[in-house]
């Protein structure tokens, strides 16, 4: 079963269970997926769906930080609940050491030698680690690998 099908099934389950918070988050995800399909006239595969989920999670993290800073804990809690639902659709994340090992392997494959190769390395890393790692941690690992 593809990830897209799994999301549809989870939406039906949330409807039957009358779980409005989960249902709202899944509908938000489906709307983002549909928007991408319509805009680019493509059929999304699992990798593209994971990229959309990653983007939505990043938006939630930014919103949580803003709401917390503004003293709106009620809204921050709502965003955290949405983020938890979205995280269920991501594959298992790589640990910090696994990210560093993957980045070093990619740097060696590409023969990258300095900060000027950052774009080339990040492009390769995004292809290989899409959805498997937090891109903030990946970016830090690439910078460290190219600096030293």
UniProtKB/TrEMBL annotation:
Under Gene Ontology molecular function, one entry of this record is: carbon-nitrogen ligase activity, with glutamine as amido-N-donor
> Which Pfam family is an annotated match for this chain, by its short name?
YqeY
Give the top-rank taxon of the lineage listed in the UniProt record for this protein: Bacteria
What this protein is called in its record is GatB/YqeY domain-containing protein
Q: Which organism is it from?
A: Ottowia beijingensis
Question: What's the source species' lineage?
Answer: Bacteria, Pseudomonadati, Pseudomonadota, Betaproteobacteria, Burkholderiales
